[in-house]
Amino acid sequence: MATSVDPGLLVQLNKYGVEDAATCFNCGNCTAVCTLSSEDTPFPRKVIRYLQIGAEEKLLHAPEPWLCYYCGDCSETCPRDANPGEVMMGLRRYLTARYDWTGISHLFYTSKVFEICAILFVAGLVGTGFYLFHGPIVTDRVALNEFASSHVIEILDLIMLLILSGFLLSNARRMARAVLGDPDQYTRETNAEDDTPAAPEGKKWNGIPVSLYIDELKTLLVNFATQKRFKDCKSKSQDMQWLIHLLIMTGYSTIFILVVVFLRWFQRDEILSFWHPVRLLGYYGTFAILYGTTYAIIGRLQKTKTVYKYSHSSDWAFLILLWLTTFTGILIHFTRLLGMPLSTYYIYVIHMMIAVPMLVLEVPFAKWAHLLYRPLALYLIRVKERALS
Ligand code: SF4
Ligand code: SF4
């Protein structure tokens, strides 16, 4: 099969944060250093080579960028300062954009103007919605549920969840097709002399029996829930990174579930007792996100670690939106405790004007999507191996 070559690929990738790949002379040191690279799926040298020769199709089919957890060891030891760790990060942005059929991800990653305008546009929609449709403004006590009914917000949350899941899952489907490749490769030749009865074919997707996808679902679920491969990276710098990653992920998931699934218990006008499980979960989620994002922001400002030396504008957008969402959430908590109605309503609107763009743009089209793409890559590799074995 002919391989399509795009001589402008390296220039194109520049916008996604890949800046130094041209200097790589393919020594392979990075692949030798990387403790996550394996004989079957070696990286990062191989994908950097694809980039250099403009092998766009091969890059699109490659799951390797999702197997890198950006410890930075390869960048520190690269003799040409090609920064392979950051190249892998840039490739993840590029692949996220290629999987996305709407084109929003491409614009979000490659245009700062679009990025800022998209955030402001969604924030403006939310602000306008509250201006036009807010409930009664009670001033003698904090009555947040009258100002913004938790039942209405709950319905809007669920609608948003359905729409975002639709975008994310349709993009994940495109990723699966790309990684699994040509369905014909899974059709085995039958040997006329072999009288072993053929296994029942069953229903297939992309040339692979659906039963195999179901059988390997555990790979997807375990890796999604634990991110355990992060721990497999033997780099010393990864222990702290794993903790920060875990704090942000678990904190975010906790708050997300409280807000989307249990909002009627989370957003109440009466103050729950300190030891109430919903309040404790809220405290955990808030602390975990605030600690994780503050650590990452300080790291990116100080640039002391390799992993924080290079920041794409989307990295800043993600961290700042998440930090501000958490900070305004804390302010709401205090204004409620202190019985300040107007401050609570104003900050609540600002909080939503930050939180909604963060969810709408980051989950299906940018940084948050990697939470699905990473375990999905491991799952697809496993399914592919078994289908070809
Ligand atoms: S990125 Fe650096 S270490 Fe890796 S193959 Fe290229 S020159 Fe060698
Ligand atoms: S950054 Fe770390 S995990 Fe990623 S390719 Fe380099 S050595 Fe491997």
Kindly summarize this structure in a few lines:
The chain is mainly α and 389 residues long. Helix content is 66%, strand content 1%.
Describe the protein's architecture and organization:
The protein is mainly α. The protein folds into two domains: 9-99, Fumarate Reductase Iron-sulfur Protein, Chain B, domain 2 (Orthogonal Bundle), CATH 1.10.1060.10; 104-187 and 200-379, no CATH class. The chain has 20 helices and two strands. It has helices spanning 9-14, 29-33, 45-53, 56-61, 73-77, 84-99, 104-110, 112-133, 144-147, 150-180, 210-215, 217-226, 229-232, 238-260, 263-266, 277-302, 306-309, 313-337, 341-365, 370-388; strands spanning 204-205, 208-209. The protein has a two-stranded antiparallel ribbon. A hairpin with a 2-residue loop joins β1 and β2. α7 packs across α8, α12 runs antiparallel to α20 and α14 (238-260) crosses α16 (277-302). The radius of gyration is 23 Å and the shape is globular. The relative contact order is 0.14. The model has no long low-confidence stretch (mean pLDDT 91). The protein binds iron/sulfur cluster (2 copies). One iron/sulfur cluster (SF4) binds next to α2 and α3.
